[in-house]
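To assess whether the prediction recovers the assembly geometry, we first specified each molecular entity separately, as shown.
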Amino acid sequence: MSALTESRVISARFGKPQSWTLASYRADGGYETFLSVLKTKKPDEVIAEVKASGLKGRGGAGFSTGMKWSFVPKGTTKPVYLCVNGDESEPGTFKDRQIVEMDPHQLLEGVGITCFAIGAHTAYVYLRCEFAEGLRKVGAAIKEAYAAGLFGKNIGGSGFDLDVHLHMGAGAYICGEETSLLNSIEGVRPYPRNKPPFPAVEGLFGCPTIINNVETIANIPHIMKRGAAWHAGLGHKEDPGSRLWCVSGHVNKPGVYELETGYSLQALIDGLCGGMRRGKKLKCVIPGGSSSRVLTADEVRTVTMDVPCMKRVNSSLGSAGIIVLDESVDMVDAVLNLMKFYAHESCGQCTPCREGSPWLVKILSRIAHGQGRPQDLELILDIADNMEGRTVCALADGACWPLISILTKFRHEFQAKIDAAARSGAAGAPTGVRAPAGAH
Amino acid sequence: MLPETLKSEIVELTSHYPHARAALVPALRAAQRDLGWLGKETQTEVASLLGITALEVHEVVSFYPMLYDKPVGRHVIHVCRTLSCDACGGKELWKHLESKLGVTRGGTTADGRFTLMSAECLASCGTAPVLLLDNERHENLSHAQVDKLLEAAR
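The predicted structure of the complete assembly is given in tokenized form:
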């Protein structure tokens, strides 16, 4: 394969001077698509166009965006809301932050078009509070858009009204789960909600609500400008589009790279990312944010970056957070690090996740510290089996997928530590045998 | 008592939503920005501005790591501890800060200048190691650069 070069759509304006200002955005034709959609399209036509484009959500779940929009009940008498999910907290993922910092108007134009399509007159852009720069940039961009008559009443003389507000989170991964995000906005403890009812029917303040990821919405102006067929022709035909791939870990040039779907993961690492750092060997890649299943170096050589291929190797592209780890990494330490994340971020609503995730941390910690017990690996798998699929949201699943895949593919590393502990006599009392009360 | 400017900021925030309560998290972040942390009195005042009970405010404050219900130092440091940072110098950065400041996780220096916290993924994995100093992001940090940052924060 020839050397990869980026094909920039979403990131086309990144790095331009003052790229975040309205003047810069309009100089590149910004908001023309929004104003033309308001004048020339019907909402249903926009939904049909986005459906036909094949765009899938970029937040992790990868659901068809146009399909999601079409679930808003026709002729509803309640207000409809759009919530933009910018809680970006999935370990390994750092693309939405670049959009809100470097091209906030691209996002806001997408917000305008999306609201028109779904019949919303109020949108909330939800950003995690750690995005200080993004909050400043989006806040300023919203003000500029109001002042230019792009938001507010009777936009461009079309009769369409739209209010857009910035909403700030306070440091919780769970708020990126769409129903948790709704509770976070409503000012209650942000526990995920049971579905159904789905948010498109009963979401924010009990009204029909569409929640879309930042990158998803940033795609909308391009699709409406260049057409569904253009988008459907980008990259892999079953999972089309151009995506921001976030590469971190042991490569020479980590960063966000924009490529159409369908390229070789190995070529991305060797090409744009400049290969492995310090000439070390690749050990494994977590390809779609920390909640996706790990790929060994052998698997990495065979995969392309698209949903169908990732499904074939039983992993996922998720949020396109690609964590590259070299041969120096201790996989027990790596998975312990991740399980600490899930234990910290478990909201505590469901017992399997609230109790299971810290328990996993405890077991993995003792294995890492040379005190693992012979039956610990079976115990880990048993706990994971009691978490996966048994909770309101997918956080517990997201903890189990990397855990089980790492334990399966690198079991020898766990076993070696446990065997060493047995030889040295450091392993603690066998699990299941309770110490007498008061013994601690 | 909440300063008048903060009160009017919170009242303005409530106008963004059909129910005032929805302004709670942004209101608490604004209060924390001005007051440093969210004491019981502050929580009660925010509650009355939003027409909810102090308990309802506390339920939310106690959930979020970025809302502080205990006093913190004049400057708050959040070091990312999640995988990409951990694998690319984050562990060493954490040890450096602990020994330099003489505190452990969550601790505040004796002079009240710094509180050291860890954070879960700060969405800047490609520029590890990363920390927030007073909520502003600093990337690709060497220990010398961190020392400079701390010196500048009086």
